[in-house]
Amino acid sequence: MAKKDEFIPASHLPGADHEPSLKESVEKRAAIFDQIAHSEQRKQLKQVVQKPGEKALAKAAAIRKSHPGNLCAKHFTEEYFASLSEKQQKAFLKITLSGLNNPDSSMGCYAMNPTDYEEFRPFFENVLAEYHQVEVGAKHVNNWDLSSVEDLPEDGKLSLLDFRLPPLSMRVRVGRNLAEFPLPGAMFQHHRVKLEQKMQEAFKKLIALPDYGGAYHSLTPGNPDFIDEATYQKLVDEHIMFKDMSRDTYLLEAGIANDWPHGRGC
Q1: pLDDT exceeding 70 applies to what percent of the chain?
Q2: Helix 86-95, helix 52-66: angle, nearest 10
Q3: CA-angle at 173, arms to 258 and 222, nearest 5°
Q4: What is the C-alpha separation between 109 and 63, in angstroms, rounded?
Q5: What is the rounded distance in angstroms from the CA atom of residue 208 to the CA atom of residue 56?
Q6: Can you tell me the distance from the alpha carbon of 215 to that of 207, in angstroms, rounded to the nearest whole number?
Q7: Looking at residue 161, what is its pLDDT?
Q8: Distance CA 250, CA 57 (A)
Q9: Segment among 22-31, 151-160, 186-195, 217-226 with least mean pLDDT
Q10: What is the number of alpha carbons within 13 Å of residue 222 lying toward its C-beta?
Q11: Angle CA(239)–CA(245)–CA(249) in degrees, nearest 5?
């Protein structure tokens, strides 16, 4: 006997044709699910799928307006991108990733392999020429001739000793890459560690020289020359060791800061 005001499904009321079986209930729910799934599929088909190249071109065009000083975006043109093969386009997107994801970049492009400078020459030569404010194709010529310099000493040589200055400290920054390794942006962790190990062999020879000496400080966990956090911070404060590269969005997007701190040291 049903209580007053108690809800009873229509299928359970007296005179109902039949009570739905478990199978019928499952089939009904499955049909509703299929309807929803088909509806979502139709929505997705209506959406425009944008390829990576199209997205990058749109981003470059927007950056040219908002940040005209971004040379990567300036020379990332639809005409040039269309001239590349599909394989080259993938490589080019990696080369230009940092500049497109950091609109306030000045250069914004990083070669991944030494051959990139030649393979993507039309792009790189325009970027480099504009950055250095020279004509495309210009070549730098060293000239150590001092004959045109006025007020030289009688022997025609410049020497700091002649100026009676106290001892000076000079730091020379030189960037070099080893032919057997990719450039930093295309390196994996094992490349970075192997490169460091190879350089450590050269450092040992220099450190052994009485007129050279010094020490090597590694940031790679497990390296024989690994230093602790306190020593690292001391070197950073003295402007000898570089700061945490993984916090640099420009280097991170370029792949150069990947795998930090493995393979790094000074």
Answers
A1: 82
A2: 40
A3: 40
A4: 14
A5: 51
A6: 6
A7: 74
A8: 19
A9: 22-31
A10: 5
A11: 125
Judged against a pLDDT cut of 60, whether residue 15 lies above it is answered with no
Cα 122 to Cα 23, 80, 90, 91, 253, distances in angstroms: 68, 8, 17, 15, 23
Tell me the CA distances in angstroms from 53 to 40, 85, 97, 98, 225, one per residue in order: 27, 12, 11, 15, 44
Q: What is the DSSP secondary structure assignment for residue 45, as one 8-state letter?
A: H
Contact (CB, 8 A) for 99 and 105: yes
How far is 42 from 39, CA to CA, in rounded Å?
A: 5
User: Taking a C-beta distance cutoff of 8 angstroms, is the pair 98, 110 a contact?
Assistant: yes
Global pTM value: 0.72
DSSP 236-263: HHTTSS---GGG-HHHHHTTTTTTTTTT
Per-residue pLDDT at 9 exceeds 70: no
The token duo for 228 is 């602790």
> By 3-state DSSP, what share of the chain in percent is helix, strand and coil, each rounded to 5?
50, 0, 50
* Across 160-171, average pLDDT: 73
Distance CA 191, CA 180 (A): 10
